[in-house]
Amino acid sequence: MKIKLSFLLCLTSMFLLSACGNGDENNSSLFSNYSSEVLETYCAVKGAVQTKNSDTDLVYIECSQNIDTSMEYSFTRSKGDIKIYYHSPDGTDYLLEDTSEEKGSLVDGTCDFSLERGLGKIYFTGTDSSFEFSITIHVHEENIRYFDAKSPQENCDKEQEYEEYEQQLEEKYGNGIRPDT
Asked: What is the pTM of this model?
């Protein structure tokens, strides 16, 4: 289990450093220095993002109940503008911040919103934009079931791919030494 978790964390990091979105070169986003964590009374995510005509999923959040919360954010603009949304489990999008309404390179503040029970996500939209970001969502750890950059289904799919790969190696090399170790 420890190996699977380490592999899963490694895969998540690799995907975050590669292009997100639908794979079209003109419609992709790149993350760098991405990190996320869940602590006792808040969840935090930070890093840098470059967007090109696309939505960029920042973090998936699954809550065990509806929660009124607040979010602190800080964006340092290199170029362009972005909007940040909360996409609720029922499919409704709520605008949390629009940097086009702000002047200067630093955009920071707080906003109140409700996280709904179930799986939702926070995402950016932007056209040829580049930002460093830091977001803190005030929510108690016991109310969060899932907090990650990839959806639970994407993580399950990657874990399944890994297990199939391990099985293929086992069939090919048995319990002996494999060339990749």
From this structure: 0.69
